[in-house]
Amino acid sequence: MAEKTIEIEVLRYHPEKDREPHRQVFEVPFTDDMSVLQGVQYIKDYLDGSLSFRWSCRMAICGSCGMMINGIPSLSCQTFLRDYYPARVRVEALSHFPIERDLVISMDGFIEKLESIQPYIIPKEPRTLEQGEYLQTPEQLDAYEQFSSCINCLLCYAACPQFGLNPDFVGPAAIALLHRYNVDSRDGAKAERMELVNSEEGVFNCTAVGYCSEVCPKHVDPANAVNQNKTNSAADYFLRFLAPKGGAK
Amino acid sequence: METYKADVVIVGGGGAGLRAAIAVAESDPTLKIALVSKVYPMRSHTVAAEGGSAGVKQQTDSLEYHFNDTVGGGDWLCEQDVVEYFVAHCTEELTQLEHWGCPWSRTPDGHVNVRAFGGMKIERTWFAADKTGFHMLHTLFQTSIKYPAIKRFDEHFCVDLVVEDGRVQGVVAIEIATGEFTLVEARSVIIATGGAGRVFRENTNGGVVTGDGMALAYRHGVPLRDMEFVQYHPTCMPGTGLLFTEACRGEGGFLVNKDGYRYLQDYGLGPAEPLPRNKFMELGPRDRLSQAFWYEQQKGRTIEGPHGSVVHLDLRHLGEAKLRERLPQIYELAEQFLGVDPARTPIPVRPAVHYTMGGILVDGRCASPLPGLYAAGECSSVGIHGANRLGSNSLSELCVFGKVAGVEAARFAKSAGPGNSTSLQKQARAVEQRVMALKQKTGGNERIATLRKEMAQTMEDGCGIYRLAETMQKTCDKLDELKARFKNVNVEDKSSVWNTEWLLAIELEYQLDVAQTMAYSALHRRESRGAHQRLDGFEQRDDVNFLKHSQAHYVADGAPRIDYGPVKITKSQPGTRAYGAAGEKAEQERKASHG
Amino acid sequence: MSKRRPYVRSMDGWWRKNPYFVEYMIHEGTALFVAAYAGILLTGLLRLAQGEAAWNAWLSALQNPWYICFHLLALAALTYHTYTWFKIMPRTMPPVIVGGQRLSAWAITGSGLAVATAACFGLLAVVWGMAR
Amino acid sequence: MKQERKRSNAPIFWALFGAGGMLSALFGPMLVFITGLAVPLGLLLPADTMSYPHMLAFARNWLGKGFIFAIIALFLWHAAHRIFHSLHDIGIHAGTGAKLICYGLAMLGTVLAAYALLAIGF
Ligand SMILES: Cc1cc2nc3c(=O)[nH]c(=O)nc-3n(C[C@H](O)[C@H](O)[C@H](O)COP(=O)(O)OP(=O)(O)OC[C@H]3O[C@@H](n4cnc5c(N)ncnc54)[C@H](O)[C@@H]3O)c2cc1C
Ligand code: SF4
Ligand code: F3S
Ligand code: FES
Predict the structure, then answer these.
(1) What's the whole-model pTM score?
(2) Could you tell me which residues come within 8 angstroms of residue A203 by beta carbon, excluding any fewer than 6 positions away?
(3) Which of A72, B241, C77, D122 could connect to C30 by a Cys-Cys bridge, CB 3.0–4.6 Å?
(4) CATH topology of domain B235-352
(5) B233 catalytically annotated
């Protein structure tokens, strides 16, 4: 019996050789339970060792294996070849990011953004270890838990045209994480973080396209975080003259 | 070559490495810390841990119970003084994580909730739904951003340690994005590179879990301890090996064979009851459960699937609502990867390699015999897991001993004098030449993937759940052969930017070293203990000859030399390791004899 | 020297490449009709200020088939705007908790649409009442 | 580590956009139907619904004035904001120019509406 195969078309780019990206098609043995990641791994192992991509966990939690699969930002480890077979699958580095090589994008910009949002608890009331844990009811947990589920896979950035048009936009995932800390009952630094929300790189770059939430593999709903913060920012903008301390500085 | 001068360099940005970095920063904010990781820290494999992290929390629980569970679970091959320190510091560390923002699941009144876990007498496993490792790792990573003293070298691949004047004084790393080398000088070095599960075929580990740090220390003369103890997790996805957390059983899941029978009751874990009971049935320890699977398979009572035999993990009786709340990730994994709705259909599972109990030999303060070198996390053997790790002890270990390693490395750094930069540079250039040679050489004809596959297969054949001298010997021989063939490996890609083929070759060499230590240590341990079970006349535990830690020493161009070190026993004399009703009886007897 | 040379892809024509974006451009495009319709109303208002003759001229201009056509399209566009406006709504507001449960996205969109329908028919009733 | 960030003045435009969007979502379809279809075609509503006396009275009433002003001005601001962003979206980065035209026209419309409503008297 002839083995079944499937064609995978990969957007290749080698900074030391190519002026611009080009497409290359590989024929890969196909089984029903193979993920796109496994297909790409097969290429690397047996057809072309120079193909570069990131991956690790294979279980949709480490966030490294994001790729455009037939034009849609996806985690390649939880996208299955069977959903395309027998048609060809097109694989490309995540949109809107600079391509370092093949399917590897540059993460530098995102990491800077993540660092800029102060992604840590700045306690409302400091507590010593002897005092034990902060009390936090399941409802209080629920207020931010969804936003804390972000695996930094950057699919949402690849989905967001406003980020593509303006790479300085802080963007969906970073704002979701910012929001996660702002609404955590233990945190007291919302005012500090609002400065970034309010800034020209902040939430108002978003035109509520909403595709970021559509592609998010972890149900974070980053669009919700961004758009809630438009309201917060607008309130802050207009009310700063009224509030005793003038809202955020 | 770029040089960066740090005080402490940490290799590994997983839970242990990040916790260590924060500990250094908090113990002395003036120290410069370099955190080197081959992946962005939040990609580290700690991210995949699902079930939870142990720490005594309830009134009904005690440090003594946690101690006894751990030492008994480890089949008495634990360093008991270290276990004592460990259990005494788990809760504090988990509370610290809570203060840093970890979204622990809560009870209705707002306290942190705990769940049951295998081999644990009382519920003491803190959890954040079924994404505990994910939340711990992101909390640690994001918190680490607060400390300006921590300079990260993300996506930098460490290729060697530099040792000078009898102490370690830095590391050499490749910047993956450029292919260029950096020397990070430091007065002390912490290795936190995680486990080595990927030397096996079917495993729960991520692609990055290749034992690099173990191999680095080993090649510099630090022994790897207890490497024969490799944990098989009983409930993994056939084919890929992806994990269904033990919390599935903690929440009340059943394991049934092809007749729908809860077979664990036949292996000293009964009686079978409808509700989960700690240390009974499905909540027995992993080694026992994996062994029971093996016997079921021998008896032909497993189910044949496309990826080998399976049994069923039955969660149906828990109901969709509870599954979605407590085990949401598991629900999605089953749906997406297997097309199984766990509220309606049992999940096919089989054992797969999960955890490396052994590792870099360190004392209770995380110091290795090589001055200035510390290790923490799965790559280390600090002595708390013995012959079998209990689920949820490892995440706690990352925090407790990550911190210890950080504090100790900071202390060492402050007391040690500066190194001689010129000679460190010289060494680093030699490292660069050696590693570049691997890429530049031509004419090789061995494929990386082929060697890797053969290694993984032979490890599975020889060092599986049950072991025989003959097959272990075959595995040892095969590994020797693979090491020889590695000299002939072909790296097609000669370029600099993001040359992952080159990195895979370097990893493969690390893996072969680590695999050898596992196979040879296993061959030499002529008894059955914990995760190391033999069927060739050594079916019993042998405390007279083998209540000892194995130590594998590096021998250039040869097989590792195995010798043994003592086990520290303080409070708990080796006893029978019993679970289920027998376990309960044994405990009562023990209590009675203590008066 | 670093051999890194990250390649930045062009954004040209991005909105044609994915049906999701095409839909986005269409619902953004409803703004053209909103603007044009506001322009017509503004002209009417200016005419009203100029006196009865001017107003009546504007009123009869509205009977021109081109105007009718435009208003048919505008009706479709504004209805679509209403639909998409409330469809995005759940994405833009804080969670609404009712009886300990989060209100689902569809419940929010549904209520929005219900309110809009009520507003429209309320308006019709008021106009009808005033005209009688 | 923290750099100075420039505060965006978008909230003003965004608030107007949002208000106009909400108003047009609530009343838009019916308004179009009434003024653009029902009245010109003589459907459903009495023939003199939008007769001069009726409308004059309406526009002289405080409530009527407010309604007319809100509809015209906010619709314009809503549309201007979207059109401005869409120009950016399709790659016409006219920047300040486009901004001036879009928001400028909305401003002009607002002023004209206010002027007309004042001219109509009370
Ligand atoms: C699927 C799964 C589920 C688990 N569930 C649980 C659980 O519920 N409870 C529990 O207690 N334990 C659990 N464990 C075990 C536990 O998660 C691991 O033991 C632990 O996370 C290891 O953490 P670590 O910090 O030692 O290493 P890792 O998190 O693996 O990090 C290793 C780090 O080292 C870096 N590194 C490695 N090599 C190099 C190199 N050459 N150069 C530079 N950097 C390098 C990597 O980039 C990475 O940052 C689970 C394990 C798995 C696989
Ligand atoms: S918000 Fe969702 S899509 Fe975006 S990075 Fe996080 S997990 Fe990925
Ligand atoms: S896709 Fe982009 S425009 Fe806003 S809603 Fe999401 S951030
Ligand atoms: S490999 Fe980790 S998310 Fe896909």
Answers:
(1) 0.96
(2) A170, A175, A197, A226, A227, A229, A230, A233
(3) C77
(4) Flavocytochrome C3; Chain A, domain 1 (3.90.700)
(5) yes
